[in-house]
Here is the input.
Amino acid sequence: MRNKNVTWRALKMYHGFHPAYFPIKGLAILLSNFSPYFNLWMSAEIVTALYQGRSKEEVYLLAAATLLVNLFVRIVEAFMGWAAKNSLEILENNQELAFYNKTLSLDYDKLEDPKIRQLRRKIVENSWINSYGVVHMRLQIEGLMADLVKLVFSLILMAEMVSLMMRTSFQWLGLLLLALMFGAAALAIISDNVGNRKISAQWDKSGELMLWENQFSAGTQLQGMDNRIYRQQLLLNKLEKQLNDEHLRIFSAVCKKSFLYSVPNVVLSRLSGLFACLIVCLYCIIGAFPIGSIIKYVGYLEGLMNSIKGIFLKIGGLKINERFLETWLEYFDIKNDMYQGSLAVEKRSDGQYEILFRNVSFRYAGSDEDALKHINLSLRVGERLAVVGMNGSGKTTFIKLLCRLYDPTEGEVILNDFNVRKYDYRQYLELFSVVFQDYNLLSVPLGNNVASAAQWDQERAERLLRQAGFGERYEKMPKGLETPLYKDFDEDGVNVSGGEAQKIALARALYRDAPFIILDEPTAALDPIAEAEIYARFDEIVGDRTAIYISHRLSSCRFCDRIAVFDGGRIVQMGTHEELLADEGGRYYELWQAQAQYYA
Ligand code: ADP
Here is the structure.
């Protein structure tokens, strides 16, 4: 069941992003709608004055007053228009920032959750392609404000007309014509609403398709190298053409429907206008209205009808938009379970943090098999633990649970006697420096990347970059730490190779200076010399931190105190390199032999 207050809730939240916007816009709307009514009124006065043969001075005075008021209103209106545009920019920026921050602060498992990804995709699709959601709501509310202003102006000015009509002996005819005018307008409103509802459903389909097309073209650009090597143009052209044809088909259907639904609306609206003209002409002929009033009253009646029609149209538009707003609100309403803990993580300079995995199992959402099965392991302070195993054996998942990107499905992870869920989430995360296998560098200056912050300590960042093996390349960076990485936002940006990027990621991990350092395949992209260099200085790099190290190159695990061998989500062996190698029936021996034969 749809929540009745959806629009109200969304409007309150949207308004909160920049509370000055709607009052400023409201004032701008009031001013821009004042002039047409004022001008109608003054024109009628001038025509009547001329018709009645009043003095030239009087007519000039009326014309001058009209001009002056218009001039003043236009100047203020232009200023308010500028202020409204400016504050709309702030409102939209704040709204986008809030959405972006929501995504950044989501629990990691939620970020990956297909349902939540779908929700986010829908919001982007609705707002970019169909302008549904908060943008549509804003436009409807602004339209509604304009229509309400017009309605109030028309009603105030029409009171005079109705009182003149009621003074004649043709009261009933006037009332009948008014009823016919309103009746035709009401039918026009109904047909318009029905049409819009039907058409909006069609636009949904077209929006989905366009997003598909965008993703498709973005994807094909990214795979540019493969496209060329495998000569995929023909295949891709065919797929693109299929999408285009389908899009065209939906688009034509929407245009056809729009035309068909607009016919009754146009006919009925004109009919309503015709009744308005009839009323005014009739009462002018019998002398109930002064001659100049023809323009005035026809204008007011037209304005009245349009404003009523507009109000219903906007209300209909808001109704159609409700489901899009629901999606938007649903996204902001997602609760972050990871942030429930409140226990402070003790700050210890001696690094005395012990982490224990107690019978931990974990299954990814939507998967039918556990990625980790009954893991029992304790991390001793200051030790170097290597984690090895085949692809898909659960090594990265283990790291993700350790860093609390996920919580176990079964069992518990314990830090210094307490379940990690009890700790303040941010403080817990601060215990870890990690170089993930699929780490990300940002397209911002090198210094920002290393410090992961707006400011950096020059000496420290440079020292750690050198320690991570980036020293020689650093000397060639044109602006040192100020050098932007990649060219996404800056033409002077520097593209770094995979190996160089990995070194920067390592320097970033070291800069954080957390008691635990986790390196997931930290040398996968490095050349053999750089790799050897890192191993030679591993102790210096890691210092007295507790280090967890994942690698496929077993020779690089020899310097670790313990090696945990993962297989099928379980730890099947644990020991030093020598101990594990002594077990010739074990998994480690098998993996070692498989690699060693190439070096023999
Ligand atoms: P490793 O790091 O040892 O290569 P992973 O921990 O990445 O292994 O993966 C362990 C298992 O979990 C694999 O079967 C993999 O397919 C599965 N897996 C990894 N990530 C996800 C995910 N996000 N959703 C579902 N299954 C996943």
In short: Residues 355-598 form a domain with the Rossmann fold fold (CATH 3.40.50.300).
